[in-house]
Amino acid sequence: MSAPDNESDYEGDEIEFAGGDSDEELDEEALVWQLMLLINPGDEDTALQQFARYRETCEDDADAEPAETIQEVIDWTSGYRVDWKDTGSFIDSIAQLASRWNLSVDWGVEDPTDEDFLDATDVPELMAKAFVRLREHGYTLWNRDTGSDMYAGWITLRRDDENMEAVAAALGIDIRLGSDAY
């Protein structure tokens, strides 16, 4: 394999999204579709259902914020959103999301619903644990800036990390790996 001859060999090195030409500017709807595919790996039916609900919501409310609308249509199916102190709901939502791929997260305790355990931890600590456990199986836990005291995000395949970052950035959604909570 030889090195590129000149700078022109680097042109067009943008990330290519599934179904799109890298030279085309993807519109918001196309980007949302890409996001739906990323957060529903191997489950195009769910992605289609969520995308249809997204489009319906946007038709009803032209000023709908993409991140919030996406979160509304994916909650508890392909995404999580919990209050900053609701450790129990975070564990439940991650368990439900991970079960889509026949995975379970080892929280490091025998009973993660135990009140003493839940009181002694917080969502960012749990998010970091879930991130590590999911990475072991080829998945990435993401969290997004909600601009509030809520935590929200989704899970993608680890191999799609760069695409996830590109799609989220193009949509104006500020995301981080689950190991680094907002």
Number of domains: 1
By DSSP (H or I, 4+ residues per run), the number of helices equals 7
Unreliable residue runs: 1-24
Largest beta sheet: strand ordering: 1-3-2-4
Oligomer: single chain
What structural class results from the helix and strand content?
alpha+beta
Please outline the major beta sheet: 4 strands, antiparallel
First and last CA, distance = 42 Å
What's the rounded overall pLDDT mean? 88
Report on the structure:
This is DUF6630 domain-containing protein. InterPro entries: DUF6630. This protein has 182 residues and is an alpha+beta fold. It has one domain. It has seven helices and four strands. The chain has helices at 28-39, 44-60, 66-74, 87-99, 115-119, 123-135, 161-171; strands at residues 79-83, 139-144, 150-157, 175-177. A four-stranded antiparallel sheet has the order 1-3-2-4, sandwiched between helices. Strand 2 and strand 3 (150-157) form a beta hairpin. Helix 2 (44-60) packs across helix 3. The chain is globular and about 45 Å long. The relative contact order is 0.14. The model is unreliable at 1-24 (pLDDT under 50).
